[in-house]
């Protein structure tokens, strides 16, 4: 398992559009997921210990961000042929078990992850109301184990600032996680 760190935020980079199937049976687009004050795009999966450690916190933060006008969406781009835990059926189970308050989408072709430049799970992309990138950092200090509950909520606070001002924090700490499991390009 390769652990990777996300690159520095490229402020203002536009959010690529997408149209992907959700575990709820609907097709979701970027604009359908967006809230009036912005959009949080999360690349996650089921099997990654970094994601497993923070699922409850992701749900908590997405719920609280919705109250601030930030829409959220989670996208799974791993190749489930090599990682059966990341299959669409398992995505449905995880979304139901954790009560995901956001669409959980399958990027089967991996084109959306490539368009965003996603590198790991979890990888967070926070956009303002104009869909310009303002946050590309970590959720909090968690790694393969959840950090103490009283740790600084980097993602939430960064996106709260985006909701209120349209601008993300100048200082951001990269997210760390498992590499996206890319298909072999034959």
TrEMBL record:
Thioredoxin domain ranges (all copies): 9-144
Gene3D superfamilies membership: Glutaredoxin
Xref: InterPro entries: AhpC/TSA (IPR000866), PRX-like1 (IPR047262), Thioredoxin-like_sf (IPR036249), Thioredoxin_domain (IPR013766)
Domain of life of the native organism: Bacteria
Protein name in the entry: Thioredoxin family protein
Organism: Thiohalocapsa halophila
Taxonomic path: Bacteria, Pseudomonadati, Pseudomonadota, Gammaproteobacteria, Chromatiales
């Amino acid at each position: 398992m390769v652990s990777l760190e996300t690159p520095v935020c490229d402020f203002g980079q536009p959010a690529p559009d997408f149209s992907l199937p959700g575990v709820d049976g609907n097709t979701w687009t970027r604009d359908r997921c967006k809230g009036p004050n912005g959009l949080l795009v999360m690349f996650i999966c089921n099997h990654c210990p970094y994601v497993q450690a923070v699922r409850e916190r992701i749900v908590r933060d997405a719920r609280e961000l919705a109250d601030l006008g930030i829409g959220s969406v989670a996208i799974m781009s791993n190749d489930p042929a090599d990682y059966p835990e990341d299959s669409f059926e398992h995505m449905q189970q995880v979304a139901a078990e954790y009560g995901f308050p956001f669409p959980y989408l399958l990027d089967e072709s991996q084109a959306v992850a490539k368009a965003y430049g996603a590198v790991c799970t979890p990888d967070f992309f926070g956009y303002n109301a104009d869909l310009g990138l303002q946050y590309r950092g970590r959720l909090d200090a968690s790694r393969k184990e959840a950090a103490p509950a009283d740790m600084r909520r980097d993602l939430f606070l960064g996106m709260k600032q985006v909701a209120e001002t349209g601008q993300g924090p100048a200082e951001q700490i990269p997210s760390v996680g498992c590499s996206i499991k890319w298909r072999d390009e034959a």
